Amino acid sequence: MSPTAPIVTEGLQRYFGSGDDLVKAVDGVDLEIKPGEVFGFLGPNGAGKSTTVRMLTTLLRPTGGAAFVAGYDIVAQANEVRRNIGVALQDAAIDPLMTGAELLQLQAVLYGLPRSQHQTKASELLERVGLTAAADRRVGTYSGGMRRRLDLALSLIHEPSVLFLDEPTTGLDPLSRMNLWEEIRRLNHDGTTVLLTTQYLEEADQLAERIAIIDHGVIVREGEPEALKTSVGCPTLFVSVERDEEDTATEVLGRFGDLRPSHEGTLGVGLLHGPGEVSNVVRQLDEAGVAVRNLELHEPSLDDVFAEATGYRLEGAAENPDGGDGSDEVDDK
Fold first, then answer.
1. Of 54, 44, 42, which is closest to residue 16 (Cα–Cα)?
2. Beta bridge partners of 159
3. Is 186 helix (H, G, I), strand (E, B) or coil?
């Protein structure tokens, strides 16, 4: 294990409880994140994403294994780790009675920046995240998207070399999500290494150079998004039929390739010989007396990669819902 990489872990573990109540929230995670890359950490709520981030940011002590962040041991050199990282967590506590400018200046004080830089840095970061017009408003009046952008600005006050973003767009509207994506891209372009946890496949596909998929505390896939999608191979055909015809439809679909996990009410099959088989599938279903309610053909996606690795689909991952806290920390425990 080389501690020179911005983030590296070996056999990282975090267990909760004991005996019959033992929960292995993170169970032997190995990662090595390269300098200047956006690394996507993908998985459903409760998979272990937030628990892993809390260990890497020194907020939670590992049960076992080892990890280095910014070249420092997360246990033995926790203070050095904190000085070199920026962190924007799902449940960040932001004082609603203070203004955005006041919070940034307070953050500058906490990180020991020279007094002469406090106001300048606050103004620069507010402009960077598009909050200049709201600088003197109390944070309690900010929208969810504005709070997320302020939290990002707070994590950047000391110009960290490594940035942790834990589900940064959960609960945001589409426009706020896109704005935050652009800011993450700008940060990465400037050389910041970013670990991004998310349950949204589109987000990981858009932003990450490499991703790791975690399920039940274990890494089940890792690599570049395009390479992972290519590894799945053939496209997936999803077919919706009446419930009492599902057994017959399953038998027919099995003639055209391997059955794949699908959302409830839908059957999926990987078309071994490509999209040209769709017409044959429809014809054979018709000959078997199966009425097709809906038919969709999808090229290989991260959802297929996830399904192949875990045996189920990542519910709601294709798009960001309008609400919900998206927290997986309670589930991890």
1. 54
2. none
3. helix
